[in-house]
Write a structure and sequence with these properties.
The complex is a heterodimer of chains A (562) and B (171).
Chain A lengths: L5 H22 L5 H9 L3 E3 L4 E5 L5 E3 H14 L3 E4 L5 E3 L7 H9 L17 E2 L14 H11 L14 E4 L13 E7 L5 E7 L11 E8 L3 H15 L10 H8 L1 H16 L2 H6 L3 H8 L17 H7 L1 H10 E3 L5 E6 L10 E3 H14 L3 E4 L5 E7 L3 H10 L14 E2 L14 H10 L3 H7 L4 E4 L13 E8 L2 E8 L11 E2 L4 E2 H18 L7 H8 L2 H7 L3 H5 L2
Parallel strand pairs in A: 6-7, 7-8, 16-17, 17-18
Antiparallel strand pairs in A: 1-2, 2-5, 3-14, 4-5, 4-13, 8-9, 9-10, 11-12, 12-15, 14-15, 18-19, 19-20, 19-21
Chain B lengths: L2 E4 L2 E4 L2 E3 L13 E5 H14 L2 E6 L5 H8 L4 E6 L6 H12 L5 E6 L3 H9 L4 E2 L7 H7 L17 H4 L9
Parallel strand pairs in B: 3-4, 4-5, 5-6, 6-7, 7-8
Antiparallel strand pairs in B: 1-2, 1-8
The chains are: A alpha+beta (562), B alpha/beta (171).
């Protein structure tokens, strides 16, 4: 875990004072609504339907117990006792009072949490692999690089007023667990044949309107040039990103309008100029700079005796609940005797991603006792205890289960990703939480879920796409039609190595049709699959849209319409 | 005269902005700022008639391409048509860091107090706040945050460089 030094502390503390003064001036009428809007967004404060929403950055999804305890405290003191984990590994409070936000931020700053650049037209929190440091398929731990990049883009004055939001996704593993190519920039750490570390840069991804996957811009940027190349991309965007139309302001539109060759040439030209100037010297990372940050991300003190623990299989044979949880929520760890434990935030009748004060506290205690004090957030709105000894698994399960955090559904049909939707968000056209719960109830027996197997259902309440509907195997997009909530369904999206943007299947379904429609799609898949090992997405890719369309729409003419 | 910020202090502005189309160019022998278009057309006449001529460059201009025409100017002004339009911030950094422009770099347009800190960091030493802004507040805003991670164009040493010589000594 990265530990702040005096510089980091001073920055966050001074930032709170700056925002406190801005809030005071706004409340005193010295700042207009529009001016203050830009300022509060850059501190994570968003205006929702009923109250402000405060988004708290969780850098590359890494949390520690002191932060979890502080979250428990602030959601009780400033909110309604719960918070929400987002698809970008961040945390949102739904009900803070504007005049109390400076105090809230001051409390968060005590534990290295803040809302700096959590919203607004700036560089946002960097998302990364929730298994960083523990995955067997990892070639380079991305966390030190994420932290170096975080510092470079935090309060960077040149890139503080960009045309539109700008997101980074980072991975150093073979399996992409951070939906990296859905970001404006994806960075893949690579090791060349000669052993040199570098970055494969993708640029131009983005969900929301015109969802696109990032395109490869440079196959190997040397390790020393992370900030130089990033500067080139951001400067190109700041200069050429459209400012005449907010819906066409993301960097993906520049890529689309220019084509990849011209776009790449512009970035490479700027990169070469940076390298040739004093800026290039300042932005150059030395090996010692990387090592200094890498030293923060130490390997936990794994105990060799962890191997000689309780017999997990024997306990599982006696306890079906534990067995189901082991099967679905526990994964292999690169160190023998340890496992990765997924904490499901998708309990029945629970808002996907929500976490209560009691759950924050329980998680703080559990990770202190059983996972070296750390917790990670995932882009599908669950949590991870990355380093649990096998002999502690039963106790961890018991404690998680006691606070409804052990639903054995990771990666299954009820592990639904959903934005807050119309219940909270002022951008939303339709509700998403209610739809998630309706679909959940259709499949809430474990047997049904296991039979269906791996599937990713994602729901957004509007086309801004916070629920990542474009990259769901079944994506659901809420739309407004004459004041009514309707839902468009896309199929075949995926966020990972096989990243793809889903295809729209046909007309939207009404609120009272959507859960039935999704159920028909899934029952159709069970009939269509060639065997039990073929997943929904594999089946869709083999057969295409037509057989699914025939099942979604009962009316025959709709089903055959193009 | 308008009061502005220059080098961190509130001072009376000694430059006159001359809009395109105006034939009268301010006090003869005075200091004037003209648009890039006018500078290109009337360069000799402008220089002959005034003590100093500064140039206002649109924020859509390729600053590197334009620079040979204005590199000897004592003042370059960059535009902020809206305070949240940050294009001129990149122009400023390129002017200062790459092109080594050492003259007065002025920010004009929709400049509110809460933009001032960022302008200072990008190398603007001359700032003309919007008419309704509190100048003393704008001056104070220049020092709102004393620490920074990056170099940018205001003399900060990047944090990764500072840490090379012993961790986290605050300057």
């Amino acid at each position: 875990m990265y530990r702040y030094d005096a510089i980091d502390h001073a920055l966050v503390t001074q930032r709170v004072a700056q925002f406190r003064d801005q809030t005071r001036r706004f409340l005193a009428g010295e700042l207009s609504e529009e001016e203050f809007r830009h300022l509060r967004l850059r501190n994570g404060l968003y205006q929702q339907r009923f109250a402000p929403m405060l988004r708290i950055s969780v850098p590359y999804g890494l949390l520690e117990s002191a932060q979890l305890r502080k979250m428990a405290h602030v959601v009780r003191k400033y909110d309604k006792g719960y918070a929400h984990f987002t698809t970008r590994q961040n945390i949102q409070l739904n009900w803070p009072k504007l005049e109390q936000v400076p105090d809230l931020l001051a409390e968060l700053a005590e534990v290295q949490l803040h809302g700096i650049q959590a919203c607004g037209n700036d560089t946002r929190n960097i998302t990364s692999d929730y298994l960083a440091g523990v995955a067997a398929d990892e070639h380079i731990d991305p966390r030190p690089y994420c932290e170096l990049l975080r510092q470079y883009v935090t309060l960077n004055p040149e890139f503080y007023w960009l045309p539109r939001k700008f997101k980074f996704g980072f991975t150093g593993a073979a399996v992409d667990r951070a939906a990296t190519r859905t970001n404006d920039v994806a960075v893949h750490l690579v090791r060349r044949a000669d052993g040199a570390i570098g970055y494969r840069f993708f640029v131009g991804g983005g969900l929301g309107r015109l969802p696109m996957l990032g395109q490869e811009m440079n196959a190997f940027v040397p390790e020393s040039d992370l900030l130089r190349y990033t500067c080139a991309v951001l400067r190109t965007f700041n200069r050429f990103g459209r400012r005449d139309n907010i819906h066409k302001a993301r960097i993906k539109i520049v890529l689309r309008e220019w084509g990849i060759e011209r776009f790449r040439a512009a970035i490479e030209e700027e990169y070469a100029k940076i390298n040739a100037s004093v800026e290039g010297d300042e932005l150059l990372l030395l090996p010692e700079d990387v090592e200094r940050i890498r030293a923060h991300f130490t390997t936990p003190g794994y105990k060799p005796q962890a191997e000689a623990g309780a017999d997990v299989a024997a306990i599982a044979a006696r306890d079906a609940g534990f067995a189901a949880w082991i099967k679905r929520n526990v994964r292999a760890h690169k160190v023998p005797g340890y496992r990765v434990v997924f904490v499901s935030l998708k309990a029945p009748d629970h808002v996907p991603g929500d976490c209560t004060a009691e759950q924050f506290e329980a998680l703080a205690d559990i990770c202190d006792s059983y996972s070296f004090g750390e917790l990670r957030s995932t882009y599908d709105q669950n949590l991870v205890l990355a380093d649990v000894a096998e002999r502690d698994l039963y106790e961890v399960w018991r404690r998680l289960d006691a606070v409804k955090l052990a639903t054995p559904n990771i990666g299954l049909v009820t592990d639904i990703v959903s934005c807050p939707g119309l219940d909270f968000c002022s951008l939303a056209n339709a509700g998403s939480i209610g739809v998630a719960q309706d679909i959940y109830r259709r499949f809430d027996t474990l047997d049904a879920q296991y039979e269906i197997g791996a599937i990713r259902i994602t729901i957004s309440g509007c086309m801004n796409g916070c629920g990542h509907h474009s990259v769901g195997h079944i994506g659901i997009l809420g739309v407004d039609k004459h004041g009514e909530e309707w839902y468009q369904v896309t199929l075949g999206g995926s966020p990972g190595n096989d990243a793809a943007i889903g295809e729209r299947i046909g007309r939207a379904l009404a609120r009272d049709e959507i859960a039935d429609g999704v159920e028909r799609l899934i029952r159709g898949y069970l009939e269509l699959r060639c065997d039990e090992d073929e997943t929904f997405i594999e089946c869709y890719r083999r057969l295409g849209m037509a057989p699914f369309k025939a099942r979604l729409y009962l009316n025959e003419s709709e089903a055959v319409a193009a | 005269m308008t009061a502005i910020l220059r080098a961190g202090e509130i001072v009376a502005d000694d430059w006159t902005v001359v809009e395109d189309g105006r034939t009268e160019l301010g006090a003869a022998g005075g200091k004037v700022i003209v648009t890039l278009a006018r500078w290109r057309e009337e360069r000799e006449a402008l220089v002959a008639a005034h003590a100093a001529v500064g140039v206002l460059v649109p924020n859509t201009a390729d600053i590197e391409a334009v620079y040979p025409e204005i590199s000897d100017r004592p003042l370059i002004a960059l535009q902020f048509p809206a305070f949240a339009d940050g294009r001129a911030l990149s122009q400023a950094v390129v002017l200062r860091k790459r092109l080594r422009f050492a003259g007065e770099l002025r920010a004009v347009g929709d400049i509110i107090r809460d933009l001032v800190f960022w302008l200072g960091r990008c190398g603007f030493d001359s700032i003309v706040p919007r008419k309704d802004q509190d100048l003393e507040g704008c001056r104070a805003a220049l020092g709102e945050l004393s620490v920074a991670y990056q170099a940018s164009a205001d003399g900060h040493t990047p944090v990764w460089v500072r840490r090379r010589s012993g961790v986290a000594a605050l300057s």
